[in-house]
Amino acid sequence: MVFEQIQTQFPVEQRTYRMRCVEAWSMVVPWAGFRLSALLEKARPMTEAKFVAFESLLDQKRMPNQIPGELQWPYKEGLRLDEAMHPLTIIATGTYGRGLPPSNGPPLRLVVPWKYGFKSIKSVVKIQLVADQPVTAWNQAAAHENGFYANVNPAVDHPRWSQATELRVGESFRRDTLLFNGYEKQVAHLYQGMDLRIHF
Ligand SMILES: Nc1nc2c(c(=O)[nH]1)N[C@H]1C(S)=C(S)[C@@H](COP(=O)(O)O)O[C@H]1N2
Ligand SMILES: [Mo]
Predict the structure, then answer these.
(1) Do the beta carbons of residue 40 and residue 84 sit within 8 Å?
(2) Which of 49, 112, 153, 184 could, after both became Cys, cross-link 45 (CB 3.0–4.6 A)?
(3) What residue ranges do the domains of the chain occupy?
(4) Tens digits of per-residue pLDDT, 47-61?
């Protein structure tokens, strides 16, 4: 499927989500997009498919920061299949009533609101259903700091700072960070029985 087909064949919804960066700042962002589940259902996942792997555009001409360094390019991310199928997980195609500006990851950008921002991979050009947990860019760069799950959790600190509070951009006081970024009711069942300190 080409981008135009993907962008137009699924029902677009307006979703205003909290966004919490792993570096303890946050925003509220009005996205437009469609459910990732709608796209994945088209691919009819086989029972062997347990994870979804995402890859971004590699284009050093237009994105000159894509030079080998802290991160390896193209940027990669991944979700467990049940996380990817969750109704809160969207592929954003716009924000603030327009298409995505270049810096926010057009033409297709993942948004997973209960996870730290780095999971929401921008400018996605490849989506694969896979059997094993995929390699992800930040996990590969520093696995002890960036877990595969990266669920927002005020009780599990980053090795270099507390995750208990956050600074909402534009505010002068710190807010308490909420478990699963405030989406606990909707997503906690996905992690039942898992130790969130180990699977951080
Ligand atoms: N392709 C790609 N996606 C990415 C990144 C990136 O470097 N490349 N950075 C991530 C990080 S660390 C964050 S905090 C968010 C930032 O999203 P924004 O630029 O739309 O605010 O995008 C995430 N998605
Ligand atoms: Mo980030």
Answers:
(1) yes
(2) 49
(3) 3-59+68-188
(4) 999 999 999 999 999
